[in-house]
Amino acid sequence: MSFRRILIANRGEIACRIARTAKRLGYGTVAVYSDADAGALHTRLADQAVRIGPAAAAQSYLSIPALLDAARRSGADAVHPGYGFLSENADFAQAVVEAGLVFIGPAPSAIRAMGSKRLAKERVAAHGVPVLPGYTGADQSLDRLVGEAGRIGLPLMVKASAGGGGKGLRPVRDPAELRPALERAAAEALASFGDGELILERALLDPRHVEIQIFGDRHGNIIHLGERDCSVQRRHQKVVEEAPSPALTPELRAEMGAAAVAAACTVDYVGAGTVEFLLDGDGRFYFMEMNTRLQVEHPVTEAITGLDLVEWQLRVAAGEPLPLAQDQVRSCGHAIEVRLYAEDAGRGFLPQTGPVLAWVPPDGVRVDHGLVEGQPVTPHYDPMLAKLIASGATREEARRRLVRALGETRLHGVVTNRAFLAQVLETPAFVEGRATTGLLNDFVVGDAAPDLVVQAIAAAILAGKLGWWSHGTPTARLRLAWDGGEALAAVTPEGVAVGGETLAVSLVGECGGQATVTVDGGTHTLPVTRDGNALWLDWQGRTYVLEDAPLSKAAKRDGAAADTVLSPMPGTVVELAVEAGQAVAKGQKLMVLEAMKMQLELKAPAAGVVAELPVRQGQQVPARALLARLDLGGEGL
């Protein structure tokens, strides 16, 4: 199974991650890119880069013919799928093998066997792995599903058998919710994965999500490398991951590890994989699913074991035995990872787009990323930008270092969830190691609006750019604008007047992306980036964007009037729920917009009649495009 040149069928941070290890081991590397990724970091790190199609993932990173053609043109004799995209697509793995290439992953049969949650549960249960009570039958009629739900009892989870990421997943707590949940989950699963098959499971209330990293080779050896706790989730998508889990005893760790190995043995697993479990408060665990690929959160396992899991993947794919036996696996210390996303936590976690104006990762922690200054963050792919991984001798040391690293991360040009992540890491439940999957259910995101101090700092820096003092002008007057507000500010040598108060804030100097200011007699140096009249600045762990705007522009900054619905981000209209001339109630769904693998319902801002609907289903729209206009004089429902 020897190979010399690896085509990395992915993009972003994972493509960079794979390229670095492959080159260290002496392999040639080939990157692939869509039109949206021309010049991206992963194309620069590889020995060769091949264009595979337009920006749309379906025509590039999800196109099996395009990827195989890239392998042929580049002379690659092996393919690493990374994670996401086609990494768990059995047809892709089969096509790679049939093309005479080495697939760096499990056999297509193993991917297919574990790709259906329904069949995977039946398979592992037959080998003694604990599963939640539920229904995994082939009869998918609505009446049969309703009847089985009655047998299982509430609360329960309706799950898509294929796929993941929260798609086709619906909790049901009330009998009246059951039929709508089944219909909606099946429709969403069909649209997302091409398969509307469902399973039903008894729901656990606020469990932990604990997964076991397993590895197998072509010589019949399968071991585990310990667990990761992925309980901190938002909408069933992981936010924070750590290893080891603060909930596991050595005995429970050994028991769960053995169950994960047993699950992998049912498909003669080869390569890296993860077996995911739910863990209740009494220490009982239940199989959820098996991911037949490298996980996003694999760095925390690497941090505590000292192993390179991509190196293990390459060695196993080349036919070598596993480097370690089970009793040789060691772990030390603690590691925590957070995912830095291009999303605005203060606005319902809306995905964000824009150019990367400045990117300075923090020192002292591991940062996996695929960012370069000047590149655009587009709506075509997942909004994850980077992963920050901190380790320490203790869990508290790792947590403390990660909070500090987030505060020192500089990413300007696109709004991120940086402050939200730090806020999560500081919650008492997480600090004390008590986090469950319900931690973020009622989580209140901190206010992202700039307070008076931030407004004063921005005014002082912007006035400094104008050089107002050089003209002998005693006062510089600015109109500050930000997303959702505006304010008048007057800057004098004595301070800044804003919001009816005068604050002792002044600019000392600005150089090399850093501004030094005094605030109440204390001196602070903070990262700043200018983009035309806009100023990006970091203050106390948050990033703010304020603009020196003329009145006409500032007055319009907040967007549409109450009778208008604008696109909050670039995306595709995937559903129209109303038509022109239809009366609607305030809060009624008008349409669904999709971008960055997220679907957003847009609702009527007021009761009225749909006077204008200038978009159609399937249409791509830019940010702030007019999607609907209401006649507020009409009769709302």
From TrEMBL:
The keyword Nucleotide-binding applies. Pfam families: Biotin_carb_C, Biotin_carb_N, Biotin_lipoyl, CPSase_L_D2. Residues 555-631 form the Lipoyl-binding domain. Residues 2-445 form the Biotin carboxylation domain. GO terms for molecular function: ATP binding; ligase activity; metal ion binding. CDD domains: biotinyl_domain. Keywords: ATP-binding, Biotin, Ligase, Nucleotide-binding. InterPro entries: ATP-grasp, BC-like_N, Biotin_BS, Biotin_carboxylase_complex, Biotin_carboxylation_dom, Biotin_COase_C, Biotin_lipoyl, CPAse_ATP-bd. Coiled coil: none annotated. Its cofactor is biotin. The keyword Disulfide bond does not apply. Residues 121-318 form the ATP-grasp domain. PANTHER family: CARBOXYLASE:PYRUVATE/ACETYL-COA/PROPIONYL-COA CARBOXYLASE, METHYLCROTONOYL-COA CARBOXYLASE SUBUNIT ALPHA, MITOCHONDRIAL-RELATED. This is Biotin/lipoyl-binding protein. It comes from Aerophototrophica crusticola. The lineage of its organism: Bacteria, Pseudomonadati, Pseudomonadota, Alphaproteobacteria, Rhodospirillales.
